[in-house]
Amino acid sequence: MSPDRGTALTTSPLLTFVKELSGRRIEQARKRHGITQIAFAREIGISRRWLQEIESGNPSSRLDHHVTCAEYLKLSTGHIFLPLLFCAHQMEFPRELTYGDFHELERECIDLIVRKNITRLQAKLTPRWWSKKRNDLA
After folding, report:
1. Domain span at residue 113?
2. Chain-wide mean pLDDT for the chain?
3. What pLDDT, in 10s, does the model give residues 9-52?
4. Concatenated DSSP letters for 49-115?
5. Are residues 124 and 89 part of one domain?
6. Can you state the angle between helices 78-88 and 13-32, rounded to 10 degrees?
């Protein structure tokens, strides 16, 4: 990725939107679990002030911290990664896709990636003589 393209992504309105949405989800989940900001920040190893920045959707907050918070709270991270995937493929991201729970969609994507790679790996790891032997037996 060129330096200009990397800078464009970090300052993009899409990334700002992702961080705002993620921050709201993190705050709601934290409160739903009855965890204070102080306790949560301590648990994940950041300052309370930085957690406030994350929850407020501050554009300077780091995505890895958003992911860490989401994972700790057992939240889906699709609302973070799906928009970035669209962006990486230079596709317009429909913001309506960020609402809802992504656990099932994430699982389906993982299963698809695994199936495709297992098929390729199996083909690579199968000795040629085995393929020939199986064809001769058929």
Report:
1. 102-138
2. 85
3. 556 888 899 999 999 999 999 999 999 999 999 999 999 999 99
4. HHHHHHHTT-TTS-HHHHHHHHHHTT---HHHHHHHHHHHTT----GGGGSS--HHHHHHHHHHHHH
5. no
6. 170
